[in-house]
Amino acid sequence: MARPLRILIADDHAVVRDGLKQLLADRYANAIFGEAANTQQALDKLDSADWDVMLLDLTMPGRGGLDVLAQARNIQPRTKILVLTMHPADQYAVRVLKAGAVGYLTKESASDEVVAAIEKVLHGGRYVTAALAEKLISDLSDGKKPHEHLSDREFQVLRMIATGKSVKEMGAELSLSVKTISTYRTRLFEKLKFKSNADAVRYVLVERLLD
Fold first, then answer.
1. CB-count burial class (<10 Å; 0-12, 13-18, 19+) for 113
2. What is the rounded distance in angstroms from the CA atom of residue 173 to the CA atom of residue 37?
3. What per-residue confidence (pLDDT) applies to 177?
4. Domains of the chain: which residue ranges?
5. Coil, helix or strand for 197?
6. Could you tell me where the beta strands, DSSP code E, fall in 107-208?
7. Residue 54 β-bridge partners
8. CA angle 136, 105, 65 (to 5 degrees)
9. Nearest Cα to 178, choosing from 189, 166, 188, 194?
C-alpha cells in the first residue's frame, strides 16, 4: 500500500489554508497535511518531516519568499514547491522558477487548476500557465523589462523603497547590514538609471510591482 501523500501548506491566512486543505482532501483522501503561518514555521516543518509537495505563499511574516524558497530547497531538495501567491506572474514567476520552484499559481487560479498543478509536479513536470509560458519564451530573446535585469535582492530592495521603508528597516527585515542594503540600492539605481527614491516609487507604480 502506497504511503499517504504529504502536503505542506504555507500561508499566513487561516482561511486560505483551510480552503486548500478541503479542496485537496477531496482529491487525495488519505493525504496528510501540514500548516505554516509564517516563514519560520514553514522552514521548521520542512526540517522536521518529509513532504511531497509544498504550497508556498511569497508574502508571509518573516523572511522574504525568495529567501524561504532558497532555504527550503537546501533543507528538502526532493520536495516539490509550488508557489501560490497574490502576485501576478510577470512580477515573480521567472525568479521563483529559477530559484527552484516547480510551478507558479496566483490565488485567482481555479480549484481544478491547483489540483492539475499538483498532479503535474508529482509526475516530474513543471506547471506554468499559458501566459507565463509565453513570457518565458519572450525572455529567451531577452525581451525583458529593465527591472527584470535586477538580482533577486535588488528587486526586493526596489519594492521596499517603494513602500517607504528606510535602509535600516530593510536591513532588519532582510537580516542584512545597512551598508549591504545601501550597496544594493546603489546597484539598482545604476541599472535603472534612477536619481532618487521618487524615481523608484514612480517606476514601481507604473510597472505595478506592488500589486
1. middle
2. 17
3. 93
4. 6-140, 146-207
5. helix
6. none
7. 8, 81
8. 90
9. 166
List, in sequence order, every beta strand (DSSP E) within 14-172. Answer: 32-36, 53-56, 80-85, 103-106
Which of 107, 41, 53, 58 minimizes the C-alpha distance to 82? 53
Q: What is the rounded average pLDDT of the residues 92-101? A: 84
Using the Cα atoms of residue 144, residue 145, residue 148 and residue 150 in order, give the sign of their dihedral.
positive
Architecture of domain 146-207: Orthogonal Bundle (1.10)
* Fold of the 6-140 domain: Rossmann fold (3.40.50)
Evaluate the CA torsion angle 13, 19, 22, 26 in order and state its sign.
Answer: negative
3-state secondary structure of 125: coil
Average pLDDT over residues 118-123: 92
pLDDT higher than 60, residue 102: yes
Pairing of the two strands 53-56 and 80-85? parallel
CA–CA dist 103, 132 (Å, integer): 10
Amino acid at 75: I
10, containing H or E segment:
strand 6-10
Residues 12 and 37: beta-carbon distance below 8 Å: yes
Q: What is the 8-class DSSP label of residue 208? A: T
**Which has the closest alpha carbon to 16: 84, 64, 68, 65?**
84
